[in-house]
Every structure is written in C-alpha cells, then in structure tokens.
Amino acid sequence: MSKSTRDEKFPVSSLSFLSLDSIRIVTETLSVGVMLVDADGVLYHVNQAAQFLHQGGGVPKAGFPLADVSPHDWVEVKKVLTTGVPQICSLLRMPMATVLVSRMPVMRLGATVGVMTMMQDINNFNAALHEFPEFQNLAREFETAVEQFEGVFLSLNSRGIIRHVNSAYEKLILLGRQGLVGRHIEDVQRSPRHLVSLFNEAKASRAVATMPVALPTGKTLQGCATPSFDENGELFRVMLRLKSAVSPAAETSRPAASVAPKPSVPSAELQRVCHASGFTVHSSAMNHVVQQALKVSKTSSCVLITGESGVGKTMLASLIHNNSGRSSRPFVVINCGAIPEQLLESELFGYEKGAFTGANAHGKMGLIETADKGTLFLDEIGELQYSLQSNLLEVFEKKSFIRVGGTKRTSVDIRILAATNKNLAEEVEKGNFRRDLFYRLNVIPIAIPPLRERPEDIQAMIEQLISQYNSQNGASKKMSSELLRWLLRYPFRGNMRELVNIMEWLLVMSENDVLGLHDLPSRLQQEYHLTEQARVEPASLPDITQPVSSAAAFSVPDIKMGVSLKDAVAAFEKSYLEKAMKKYGSIQAVSDALDVHFSTLWRKLVKYDLVQNHAAQEKKYVP
User: Fold this and answer.
1) Do 282 and 390 sit in the same domain of this protein?
2) Domain annotation covers residue 133
3) Last residue of a domain, which of 491, 519, 544?
4) Of 142, 273, 292, 444, whose CB neighbour count within 10 A is largest?
C-alpha cells in the first residue's frame, strides 16, 4: 500500500509511524490475539485471532473506538495509556475463551502513543505448563515456602506488579490471589498504602527498607521490603513482609471474639468485605443481600442470583467466591448468552482430538474443567439453550461429564453459582427451561434490588467514584447539589453499569471543578431538555418511570393482509433498532438505553443488517 493511498484512507493516528503491512505479516502468523490501540482509543490493528476470541460479543475492528466494542477493556487500556505502566497476565473472560491478557505501552520519543494488547487462551497456556512437570514442582515448592512465612508476604517484580502472595495477605484485603497476581500494587485499593511506600523506598535505595504499616483494622505491623538483583545487578524482585510488632502479652489479652469473629459481620467489617469485591453498600436492602451472600459463602450450596442487568450479579458471585474456602482456586465465569450456540457445548465441556472438522489436533479442555477445585459462575443461565440443559444437570448430579467426541467421564470438583435477569419459574412454565435444572439451581435464591430502589447506595457510589478520580488524577472535582439531586431521582435503567458510565463522562469531560447539569452526556441533555429555560426532572417522564400504553408510546401501523404477527414484530423491531442507532450513535449506548444485553443486541443488529449500515454511516476510516 502506497503512502498516499494510506493517508487518504486512514485518519491521523499516533501509531501512523508503524507500517500496517509489516504489522499484519507479523501478527497474523501468531496464535495469540493482538490488538493495537492508539492514543485516542481507536483500534489501529486487530489480528484474526483477536477477532475470533471476541466472536459472540462485540467484535473489534480497526478504525473504530475500542470503547464502542468493549468499554471495560477500554478502561484498562486507558490506565496503561495514562500511566505507561504495563499490565501483565491478568485473567479476562471472553465469549470464546478465558484468556491471559497483557497490555504493553507503545513508546515513542518518551511518550506513550498506544497500547498493544495480547490475549492467550488459558487452555493453551495450561497445556504448555503440563509439558514441564519440573516447572510445576518448582512452583508448588515455592508456594509452599511462601505459605510458611510468618505474617503477610507478597512478591513484586521491578515494576511493582504482584507475582506471589500468601494466604495471610489474601485474608488481610479479602481478595483471592487470582484477583491479585498480575495487578500493580497501587491498583489494589484495599492494600495498605504504606506497602507502596515500602516498595518505592527499597527500589530507590536498592537496600532493605523498613517502616511501620497501619492496617485498615487499626492495628500496626512492622513492614520490611527486601530487593533482589540478577547477575547484571538489575532489580528483578522486591519481597514485602509484615510482621506483628505487638507484644505476646498484648495479643493474649485480647477478647476471644477477635480470634473467632461473630457470625454477624459488623458494619465497618461489612464495608471492607464489600469494597474488596467492588460493592458499595449503604442501604439496608443491600446490607441484607450481602449478609445472605456471606452466610452462604461458607457452604457448598448452589446459589441463584437474580436481578436486572447491571445490578452487580457478577460482583456478588465474586464476593461469595472470595469469602469461601475455594478463594485461592479458579473463579470461572461463563456467559451463557455470549457464546454462539454452535460452539457452546464444546466450550463448556471441551472436546477430544478429531471430534469435528477444524478441532484442535490435541483436543481442548472445556471451561467447566478449568474450574476444577474452584467456583463455576454461570451468568445469564436463562439464555442456555434447552438441548444443553440436560448435560449441565448431569454435571450437577454426577460431578462429571463427557467431552464432545469422547467416551470417558471426566470428574470435577466445583461449586456452582448462577445468575439471570429472567424469571426462571415463568420460563419453566413456558417450556423454555427444564424444571429439574431449575430446582437444582434454585437452592438458595438471592435477589439484588435495582439501584433506583436504594438511593443511599447511589449517593455513596457517586462520592466514591469522585474520590477515586480525584486521588488518581490529582483533581478536586465535586458535584453541585442540583446535579446530585437530579441523579438521585434518575431511574438508572442500566443500574450500576449506567451510573459508572455517566460518572466517568462527568469526571472526564467536565471543564470545571464543580459538576453541573450542563456536564451531563448529550443524550440526557436532549432527553430531559436540560436548559436554563426548561429542566425536566427524571421522575416526571412517564416513558421512564411509569408504564405507558402501547398506543401512547408507539404508532401502530395498519394491519395488512398476508402479514403474519412474526413478520410484523420483526419489522417493528428492525425499525426501532434503526432509530435507536441513529439517536445514540454507538452499539454500547443503545445497549444501555434499551436495557438489552450487548451480545443480544449485536445478534439482532446482524440479523437485520444494521451493523453494516451503521458502519457505513460512521465517520470513521476502516482499512
């Protein structure tokens, strides 16, 4: 491709100095997924392996903003763009596989001009490790040695990325090591801040550093950071330890309740537990939900979590896992609505070599098997196709399954959690869900109330998000009383997910330190006529907060002979989605506005050829 052709086809990008032809030649030969995102958050290149891993959800394409396809991935990429600190080997659940993700900054002239994301299927990674038994033995020996340390221990690499932790550190911050390893020590919110100071001092001085470290409980421990160097004198590891500095007499004089906590968690402790799993809990309704979750976490019972989209069902499942006896084991999330139907069976149960055309020559371990000894979380269980429900029931009853194309049973030791925004009892009566599977799942139901029913949590989340932004960016943003009052009356149809998105827009896009109504996203400005002359409060809009008749809400076309109800519904759905895409501009925005899951919306847009139409109208350049 000539330079003149390329300049006509592509917008100016911070990665334009890289040859696309060279990138394609290199990345398309790799089995790992590779995505290049420029400084503006626009995808510069996506190889075929990365597109395959995204199938069943939003598929990334060069020339489009990453935020439109994967908002959560964009949040992480933006951290790397902002800080220049790489993210190494973090776990990510994708539609086609659970992958190990590393995000590396692309540097030019001392500035971060982009981010390269690499995704490795964890099944392939585990298969490689199984070929090196000596490595596995060495890793087990190291983990055993780490557990022998008195007090808290964690090991960081030279950049501050956590590589190993012991169970004492996990218990201190109430987060399993799967949620810790691969993260930067500064990103672990519940970790004592003095640990960061200890690490920085040992790294700068290249010598052992010590200082007192105050814990969230009020107790103070003695901290010690020991740097290690390779044969070239380069720092490659820093070991942090926290040991008790309190006299034995003082320890023994403590009441027995501190050794064996009461079953009912105190309010302060409950807050600490919730924060470790991403929850902000101030309402009595959510306090009751979390108390139920903590109680059931100590058992092996199946839990069915219900609630609207975006209320935090995955976070509650994570909280149950993190406070269970399996917290150090895998927490595998399977989105039953995101994996294509034709691939779901092989992804869940795995397959033997030669099971079908195009199968991996060595076979493949299924997602259920990767959860062995840990927790399997079946998100959107109501979307699971009927033909596979009996197979899943067999896993419940026999704790084993047969791979696709296999004959031998594979045993697994898993704890099962499930979540849905559907009424499964109604789905059973309609014949869409097996009755026996429903009763297996519905052992302990926990319902999460929508965010609009707990304004105390809305205000607490707003304050927390503002505090985090100010701390991370050295800012001093605050919210006007007028905007806060407006948000507390807003219905949040997308619940927590919508609140976080609105707050991120407000904090990032606002010009002044005081956030006002004029800083809200344009779609809300237009929907609620937020001008100085006319300001509509959310509670006064009937189409949001109260049901309306179909005649009032929609213009119903005349009945035509020869047009079936199915065709009429399809025509209306296509027209409605087409108007929504024109109004909101991006698939993610339509997903939030219409309260429909991203993957479900994507399938409908593809069905009605609206993805191609939307892409043609986008003022973006596609290679």
Assistant:
1) yes
2) no
3) 544
4) 273
Of residues 381, 363, 378, 368, the one with CA closest to residue 412: 368
Contacts of residue 547, defined as CB under 8 A and 6 or more positions apart, other chains included, come to none
Q: What is the pLDDT of residue 138?
A: 57
Q: What angle do CA 579, 580, 581 make, to 5 degrees?
A: 90
Q: Which residues of 129-163 are buried (b: 16+ CB within 10 A; e: fewer)?
A: eeeeeeeeeeeeeeeeebeebebbbbbbebebbbb
What are 204-236's pLDDT values in tens digits? 888 888 888 877 666 788 888 888 887 677 888
CA–CA separation, 105 and 78 (whole Å): 10
Beta-carbon count within 10 A of 320 CB: 29
Cα(570)–Cα(556) distance, rounded to whole angstroms? 13
Phi then psi for residue 310, to 5 deg, are 90, 5
Rounded Cα distance, 389 and 440, in Å: 11
3-state secondary structure of 404: strand
Adjacent-strand bridge partners of 153: 241
Answer yes or no: is pLDDT of 132 > 60: no
**Residue 226: domain span:** 139-247
Q: Are residues 167 and 220 in the same domain?
A: yes
Q: What is the count of structural domains for the chain?
A: 5
**382 DSSP 8-state letter:** G
375 lies in some domain: yes
Residues 574 and 540 in one domain: no
Round to whole Å and give the CA distance between 76 and 78. Answer: 5
Identify whether residues 401 and 517 lie together within a single domain: no
Full DSSP string of 520-554: S-HHHHHHTT-SSS----GGG-HHHHS---HHHHS
Residue type for 551, please? A
Indicate if 424 and 485 belong to the same structural domain: no
Q: Which of 92, 126, 160 delimits the end of a domain?
A: 126
Say whether pLDDT at 159 is over 60: yes
